[in-house]
Amino acid sequence: MPTRKLTVDEIRRAAEHLARDIERLVRRPLRLMEVCGTHTVAIFRSGIRELLPPELELVSGPGCPVCVTPAEYIDQAVRYSRQPDVLIASFGDMLRVPGSFSSLLAEKAAGADVRVVYSPLDAVQLAGEYPGKTVIFLAVGFETTAPAAAAAIVTAERAGLPNFLTLSAPKLVPPALKHLLDGSGTQVDGFLLPGHVCAVTGLEPFGFLAVEYGVPAVVAGFEGLDILQAIRALLENLAAGSPEIGNQYGRVVRAAGNPEACHILEEVYEPVDSRWRGIGDIPVSGLKVRESYRRLDAAAVRPLPAIAGTKAAADGCRCGQVLQGLIRPAQCPLFGRQCTPERPVGACMVSGEGTCAAWYKYGAGRWQQ
Ligand code: SF4
After folding, report:
1. What is the pLDDT confidence band of residue 366, given thresholds at 50, 70 and 90?
2. How far is the CA of 335 from the centre of ligand 1 (A)?
């Protein structure tokens, strides 16, 4: 049955109603973490922070894929881009991410063949169009985008394309949240879970938050009202004192997730320890291409010799602490001075979903240190 769109006045009244409920439910200082970079931006754009009582703090988590991709990965991509037969295919926001000594945008400006694609299958198509090139697709992201990268690998394999490879470093969200709760110093009373990720994984992989750590979590959609509803549900759960994993994005997320997407992930990738920018190595928090598809894994078939001089982060950059909710962006001494969206020093300032970029765009100068 078609649903009627709410008028602006109806949305405003609903938001005010939710804000009153939230204010009533906050009885002590609380910190909730929105894990996903899309939520961070939606929270700013909707003005949600201004609606919340001062005792309720929202902190951003490690859910921006560009932000958590380590400098070593960018270095590898840069070095591949310098090989004359290679065409690098990447999502656009990866191009500006600084590595230890260059970025893909700088290499493109210097003549490297670096192309922006909107889907991994676009990269497969490029391999068909340019048989004289080896197309390397930069497969980064979370459970959200990893199934599409896996589908590209299966498609290229079935098509017998000899010149399609991926530089694969997809990451998994649940182990990162476990890392945050396992003594990173992050204080969090509840999580707003990323709706896109949960649409693939379902709720079960996040069950440990409530069972092992007693921390509730709620899957949230991306409209302002979705987020306010999820915050209210989290607060109700905290007030009830029996932590659960809730779902306030039922129009998209099923409890069991997307079985087809999970199946292709399982077919192509296997879990592996993975390095997160500024955070370090997190056990079984990444995916690597399985042996059966290793022919399409750039790191396996075109290994790069080790080099000295790689750097985990630029001097002074505190992305790692920002990504773990340990500091607010404005507490980084480079924020808004040496580091701006036009001249990013760290990865969190590059992507539109980066925490530092969102704080700069929507709140620079207004947020307290
Ligand atoms: Fe890194 Fe820039 Fe954010 Fe500082 S403001 S943490 S340098 S991205």
Report:
1. low
2. 6
Is any atom of ligand 1 closer than 6 Å to the C-beta of 350?
A: no
- Distance from first CA to last CA of the chain, Å, rounded? 49
Report the atom number in ligand 1 closest to the C-alpha of 336.
Answer: 5
Pocket flag, ligand 1, residue 67 (CB < 6 Å): no
Reading the block at residue 87, the tokens are 């065409």
Cβ–ligand 1 contact at 341 (below 6 Å): no
CB 136 within 8 A of CB 167: yes
pLDDT for 247-298, tens place per residue?
Answer: 999 999 999 999 999 999 999 999 999 999 888 999 999 999 999 999 999 9
Per DSSP bridges, beta strands 190-194 and 30-36 are: parallel
C-beta of residue 25 within 8 angstroms of C-beta of residue 163: no
Are the C-beta atoms of residues 355 and 348 closer than 8 Å to each other? yes
Instruction: Tell whether ligand 1 has an atom less than 6 A from the beta carbon of residue 348.
Output: yes
